[in-house]
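Section 5.1 Outputs to date
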Amino acid sequence: MRKFSQAKSRPALFALTALMLFGSALMQPAQGAETAGSKCTTLGKTVVKGKIKLTCVKVTEYKWAPTPVKPALASFYNPVPPSNKFKIGTMQFQAGAVNFEFANEVCQENGFNDGCVFDNSLIGSVDPNSLNRWIGVDLNLTNQSTKTLQAVDLNFTYYMILPNGKYIESAQGITYENSPIEITLPANKSTTMRIAYELPKSIDNLNPILVVRDNSAAKPKDYFFYLNW
C-alpha cells in the first residue's frame, strides 16, 4: 500500500514543481532583456533598440545606459578646458599658461638642481649641457574658504602625463615665487600658483594635461585639466 501511494503522488509532485518554476519565471525579468538600467555583461558593448542606442557601462555593476554617456567633467575622458574653472572642496582651480623657459627662474634660486649650474659669482644659471629642462605651469587658485591658507594647508599633488602614459610629479622641494611650498592664498581671492617640472629634453610631445590629485580623503582622487599649450 505504501509503494502504491508513493507512485501515485510522484506525477502530482512533478506537476506542482513545474507550475511553481513557471510562475517564478513569469515574475523575473528576462535574462536577455536589453533595456536602460538592466544588467549587462560586456563593458563597452552597444545595442540599438528602436531609436535608442544602449551601451554597457560600469556603475556599481555592469548596466545598460542610453548613449551617448557623457563622462563627468574633470575626468580622464573629459578634462576641464583652460577657460573653465572647477571646484575641488573649497578650492577653485583653473589651468593657466605653460612656460617652457622656466629654467632661468628655477636656477636663479636653486642652482644645485639638475639642469642648473653656479656661475663665477655663485649665482645659479641654466646648464646648457644638461639632459634635462624645466617647464612651469600656472594654476589659478581661488580660496573660497573664510580664512587665509598657507602651503601646509593644501593637500594636493600635481602631475603631467608622459607620452607612455606614466605620471611625472612636480618638483616638490624647490623655491621660487609662488611655488607650491611657499604659496599664500587669501580668502576669496584668486592667486596664481606656479608648478615646476623637470623633464628630459628628449621628450618633446607631452600630453597637454595637468593632473590635480586631491589627497584629503582616505582614497586620493584625480582631476584632469587641459593646459593652455
